[in-house]
Amino acid sequence: MDSLQIYLILAAILFSLGIFAVITRRNAIAVLMGIELILNAANLNFIAFARFGGMNITGHIFALFVIVLAVAEVAVALAIIINIYQNFNSINVDEAQQLKQ
Amino acid sequence: MINIVFWFFVAMTVVAAFAVVLSKNLVYAAVSLLVTFLGVASMYVFLWADFMAGTQVMIYIGGILILILFGIMLTHKIASVRVSHANVQRGVGAIVVLALFTGLVWMINISPWINEPSIEPVQTVETIGTLLMTDYLLPFEVASVLLLGALIGAAVLARKDD
Amino acid sequence: MNIFLQYTLLIYFLPLIAFGIQIFIGKRLPRQGDWLSIGAVLATLVLSIALFAGMLLDYNPDFKQNFSFTWLETTNFKISMGFLVDNITIIMLLVVAIISSASHIYSLKYMEGDSRYSRFYAYLSLFTFSMNGIVLANSFMLLYMSWELVGLSSYLLIGFWFEKDSASNAGKKAFLTNRVGDIGFFIGIMLLFTAIGSFSYSEVFAGVAAGKISGTLLTLAGIGLFMGAVGKSAQFPLHIWLPDAMEGPTPVSALIHAATMVAAGVFMMVRVFPILTPDALILIAYIGGFTAFFAATIAITRTDIKQVLAYSTLSQLGYMIMSVGTGAYIAAFFHLAIHAMFKANLFYGAGSVIHGMHHSLHELDDHETDAQDMRNMGGLRVKMPITYLAMVISSLAISGVPLFSGFLSKDAILAGTLALVERTHSHHLLLFFGFGAALITAFYMFRMIFLTFHNEPNKPKIFKHIKESPTAMLIPLVVLSMLSIFIFYTLPNANPISDQGWFTHLVEPQESLVPGHINPSVHEIEESIHHSHNPAMITSLIVAGLGLLLAWFMYFKKIISAEVWARRIKPLYNLSFNKYYIDELYDKILYQPFLKIADWVAYLDWDVYDKYFINGFGRVTEWIAKIVGIADYDGLDQGIVDSFGRNTNRLGGALKKLQTGKIQNYVLYAALAVVILLIIQML
Q1: Distance (Å) from the alpha carbon of A44 to chain C's nearest alpha carbon
Q2: Pick from B3, B36, B149: which is nearest to A1 by CB?
Q3: Could B97 and A47 be called an inter-chain contact, meaning their C-beta atoms sit closer than 8 Å?
Q4: How many Å apart are CA C80 and CA C141, to the nearest integer?
Q5: Interface confidence (ipTM) of the complex
Q6: CB distance from C668 to chain A under 8 Å?
Q7: SS3 at position C508
Q8: Which residue has the higher pLDDT, C564 or C45?
Q9: Phi, psi of C164 (to 5 degrees)
Q10: Is a pLDDT exceeding 60 seen at residue B86?
Q11: Interchain CB contact of C671 with A (< 8 Å)
């Protein structure tokens, strides 16, 4: 039972859950976690395709870069979140409505 | 036997993912995220991506998750859990996500995947390293610059305004 | 061109030309143009005398000349107009010319200094022209046109001093009363036209003789024509305008209301006599007789000298009309001509007296006393001898005293009346009317003479300053007095009571043209008149003498007291004094209701029709406009046009809600979009 579809479906699950978290969660850090889930889902996809596509290492490389970027992004995001917390005393995304018309 | 282990890890990943998304307590969510990361790493192992599995554990769990935990700690209120954590979008969101998922699954099943034969490599590290230095040198350097930028940026942002 | 046509055209048009010039530039001519009008009328007089002389020389009773031209022609009918010149015409032309000339000359002094002097002469010329039109007409159309013109001239002249309300009202009264008569006149003319298809006398007469119109319809036509005479000749019940017409200047009264215009009615009756049925004739006789008697009874209580003469005219006109009714219509025409002479003379005499009174009052600076009231006169015989003589001669004439002209004509009329009674053995009332009026006439005429000229003056102060009138005013008096002597009418006979003069020879009665021989023939009429001539003459002499005697005793000798008798017959006296309250009666039963109807109609038009209907239109339009406005403004503009804006606004407002500012929402939208795309792919 080691087919490509399993991994892909698993990735799909992770992706959907990640989207759900981004959409639904009120805490900014929870949203960040959702983003991590999404990224992981994407990575899983890459690795799966690498394995079932003639062991193409390019997939691995790609996943590596994704991880790198994820790191950078989390670092900056957290900096921002901490800043927001210091300014507004809350990191409730519902309350960050400055873009509202 | 492998199948049981495999399915165990799959289940672990999925359940943890659900926990991340649905748990009201942020720290629980963070720990579940840790378990999710572990599950994904195990998937990598099953997929013969030894280097990636290691990288996953080290960086994601060791780096990102620590950062997240730091963030949680730094922004936690004394009286933490307040009213309702769910927002209005929950119902609609669930539907949309479900639809999305259904669409993805359907797409996965429909697609005629070409299954190329592949031989299990002894290790992938060497290959990855070589590729990084030859074919993918530019992205490598750019990535390093990016990291530098992120570093500086984060430092600037985290500074208290004078 | 025929000599008669030449003369006739000149006679007809010269006064019209004078009128035309006079009315427009008269004021700027030297002496205000009076010589123009006088010249025209004197030319008319000369031509009329020429025609008259020609007639006498020819001595032909059947003389008749007819000149016609087509005035209007359509496919259905043709109207022609023109002149008819026969002996009657010539005599009448002469009468009009004489009196008109007299009036023109009289006015030189009487109207001297008047502010509208030139206009007066213009109107006189207009009147002469119109009157000649009536005389010369040979068709009912021209007759009617000239008839109306004469009425217009009368209105203008009566109301000449229109600053006085009484004068302008009198003018209106004359015109309107005339108009009432003219309605009947026109109906009569139209009845004839409808039946016969022509307006000209000759064709109408021929048509009647041929039986195209007969029986009741012909009687009605005759009565219709008579109505014109009732109006114009002031018979009862349309007599009311004549006494009021004395508001006009005396020359006007003399010309129009004594001699010519009022005679036009009689003249017309004489012309149309052959087509009158017995029923019409009897009606005519009674109305005429009644008017004669009725007017005479009013005249005896008059104190204004001109009013006496006015009612006297009414009475004499009644005589003429009655004579037409009895069949002796030539006698009527005879009386018309003679009466014109002495009545005009009487008016000129009265005018002279009034002129003298005015002069005296002016010297005394008296503006209150009435110059025409006989109670302010008396004893004027010594101061105004010529005037006195003229008045006496004319009064003798009107009373029917032999040796004067009036005797001949009045005698003929009364003979005719008696003849009718003898023929039909009924209608005795007419005798009472005729002879009674003769008695009363003699009485009131000499009452007037005695009151004015005899006894002691009632107002010595005024009497002191009275003088005889200027020569220009005396000339007509002298001339007309001469014409009131019998001799002019009995030639070539010298017998003062002869009825065989040139007049009766030249003017012969015509046979009645009414079919069926229901009217007596000329022969029958003449026979009966011949029989009753002597009885009538004797009776009229007795009656006239009685009247004169009564006046003598009452006013000259003062043996019988007028006041005592007046008190004794007080109710009758009051009736007479108040003119039988006719004017008041008319006012109550005609004028007031009519005015009320007019008020009511005005109310209908003004307050109902205008207010509701016309204004209603306005209001309905307003209302419709309002509705349309609402529809346009609130409905269209606000509803449809604005709604575009408003809905866009609302849509925008709704869409605005999408921009929540929450990033998570945006992510949801993105996911949704992907889902949708997937679905589309699936399908």
Answers
A1: 20
A2: B3
A3: no
A4: 8
A5: 0.89
A6: yes
A7: coil
A8: C45
A9: -80, 125
A10: no
A11: yes
